[in-house]
Amino acid sequence: MKNKKQIPAFFSRCFRWFCRKDLYEELQGDLEETFYNNVKTHGLSFARKKYRYEVFKLIRPSVVGRNNPGIYTLNRYGMFRHNLLITYRNFRRFKASFFINLIGLSTGIACALLIFLWVNDELSIDRFHKNGSQLYQVMEHSEEAGYITTSRSTAGPIGAALAEEMPEVVAAATALRMGNSNYTLSVNDRDMKASGLYVSADYFKLFSYELIQGQEDLVLSDKKSMVISEDLAMALFGTTKNVIGEVVEWEHEKQFSVSGVFRNIAANSSVRFDFALSFEGFSDEHEWVTNWYNSSPKTYVLLREGTDIDQFNSKIVDLIRDKTEGKASHRSPFITSYADAYLYNHYENGQQAGGRIEYVWLFSVVALFILLIACINFMNLSTARASRRMREIGVKKVMGANRGTLVLQYLGESTAMALLSLVVALVFVAVFLPQFNLITEKQLSLDFNVILILSLLGMVLFTGLMAGSYPALYLSGFSPNMVLKGKSGNFMGELWARKGLVIIQFTLSVILIVSVWVVYKQVEFVQTKNLGYEKDNIIFFRKEGLLWEKEKFKTFLLELKNIPGVIDASALAHNMTGHYFSTYAVNWAGKDPEDRTSFENITVDYGMMALLGIEMKAGRGFSEAFGADTTKIIFNEAAIEFMGLKDPIGKIVKLYGEEKEIIGIAKDFHFESFHEQVKPLFFRLTPRFTTNVMAKIEAGKEQETVNNLRQFYQTFNPGFPFDYKFLDSEYQALYAAEKRVAILSRYFAVLAVLISCLGLFGLAAFTAERRLKEIGIRKILGSSEIGIFYLLSGDFTKMVLVAILIALPLSYYLTGQWLENFAFHIDLEWWLFVSSGVLALLIAWLTVGIHTFKASRANPVDCLKDE
Amino acid sequence: MKGSYLGEFQEIVLLAVLVLDDNAYGVAIQEELGRRIGRNISRGALHSALSRLEAKSFLESEMGGATAERGGRQKRFYFLTNLGKKALVDAEQLRRQFYNSLPGLSLDFSM
Does the keyword Transmembrane apply (chain A) (predicted)? Predict the structure, then answer.
């Protein structure tokens, strides 16, 4: 033994490492014996050499292998069954924790699943086009007063020019939607409204709107042709077969012949239309769309594969300047991936700045939070209950279970829990999906395709591992020696971990509470704030048919005003809910000739401003009493301020080169969403250029008045179905995204708080139960119920307070960031944060209170009588 | 017969185990073989032979007899089973049959 050191240590260790455990005893024994024999007979160095040689010769399959089956093999199947049985028994034994975990995890998974479906859908939008990766949208940066605005409207001729002049462009397409694009279509005296889009000839070649009749490159080669959707074909002809060549009357004005039918546009397309007409045909009749100064149509290009986008962008940046001989110097076109354009739709001063993708991220994070909160419940309850299972672990370890086996067992347990929860979650999702679709305005469904099933399994695995990791490592780490003696290891560490987890849970919950509150406040602010004009009870519809005739239209307005229920009526060329039409062809004394700031142009008829309740700051509105008001102009305050005009009433400005006299200043009002500052704007009076009729109707008589209006409209303007909108609902639609976020985040926040409380509830129950004897003794020694109550809830109070302290600054920062998106937003007030904190604390107290109260009321005799 | 085929080295190992009687364990067998064959057999080679013989049920083994010079480790003693003994006898007989049927002069080295 004293010579043991002389055995080559490295080889000895190697051998120990590679040798099968069941052979080691015999072989190492033999090797050592031979070694010492050799030392005696041949000397040390020979023996060492021999030993190395022998070890080397022992590297053979029958000897090597740590995990070779042998006497230490586990019966995997048997263990699996055993673990399953133990899991089942544990679920049954601790029913309360089981249900808390089940409800928590299944709610968490259901939320995550719903969000997953939504996110998946958002990510799929516009990605179904076969040319997808090579399809680009042409956009324009436009510099106005030092700020770059970015828009998707492009110059009409740019598509054709790009296709012709740039070798990288395989094809280009232009699409134009005119204002309210619902047109009247008629076949055999049957009239209906359908949404139309003017598209250039190559449109169906670029985009994969599948044609079931007609050929992609030919359908719009004729300027008199029309491509219709399946649904529209059904509505017009009652069939989708053999409709090619049928004639459809458009606005009782022109005839188009059907040249193709496309499959109804899938829900994941951001562009929707019922029929398409030839853009080339439109350009023939509307000269403005062919010049480079205007920007209205959307343009898309298909690039050759491998085209360098940055390089291409630098090639086209001066295109508009070149084409307009430097006159439209402020506009720089560029292209961006069409598939990404939907998600990355927001630009700030010429830089891409998120957009819808932010909401995708936001909700993904919320899903993760909720799942995390649910997992923390599982962790806390399992570790808290660990003391009940310590003997099981001790015995297993003594019987030879190693740590890996135990870790596997607990991970298996949590994964089984997650799997069960998934089943419940699927039921939840199936039940709530219609409601969810209603809120998100999507058509999500649970189709069990490979991707969904894999994602579900992924979710289960993720949840199982996340929830099970800490308990597994914690429980399997017990020393059997300590456990079987009845001592419970590192109690302090465990307690801290549990407290930490509760703090994380409540931090997340408080952040969610604050965020939801702020979002709610902002949405409420946006919807109730005085816009500077009255949007309620105003109905509007497009001028069509006879209304385009000047004298007829005058009569129409007069008669309209006489309809019972109609208070006032007028016309304008704007929709009051966003940028509609603007121009920089406004000139005034002292204007910087380089300035290209657009003024919003609202062309109105007499009485329009009064109808909208737009207040005048100075001067007067347009009035027939003064005659010849067509040479007058009214600016808003922002415009006057921008122009820097002192004492503006009576001054002359030039609009499109014509002199106009300023007769009034309108108070600023919001004609765009609250994301935008109020921009310079002017009103001009040109009744024949108005496109929309607006009528103010009596509140409370909407249905009746609309019926009267419809009757009147149909007799006055036969052949045109009455298609109207309410201004306030159009206005609400501006904030659809925010409203959706508001509603969804409210639900998710409530769920997150509920799940957190569920966990707290379980923990409180457990603590109260564990400390029952302590409570009994304290009561016997004279402690009051209040004292006990304080004792038990103190810990939780501290945890929640810490969570609130962490959460408030975080939520202040996060909500502040979100509000930055709005040019007009609420202030973050301190009381909002304080109330959120107090709310969280109250909820926590309520949750803990039930058990604590019960425990403090317990009769000490009951808790102390049996040991 | 493949399963019970006895290779030459395996036959010798079996014989060595038989010769060593009660003391047939790794080192002893290795030394016995070394002495008789005249060259050293590696423990690894011996292990292979022994484990194959055990797998064919020609040998059985049992642990025991730890000594200090082996670091207190137990030895594994090998015994022939009846099947092992029969295999030796069969091999011997097979050989004898061949020898007996040789023509007289074939083994005359003196030629």
Answer: yes
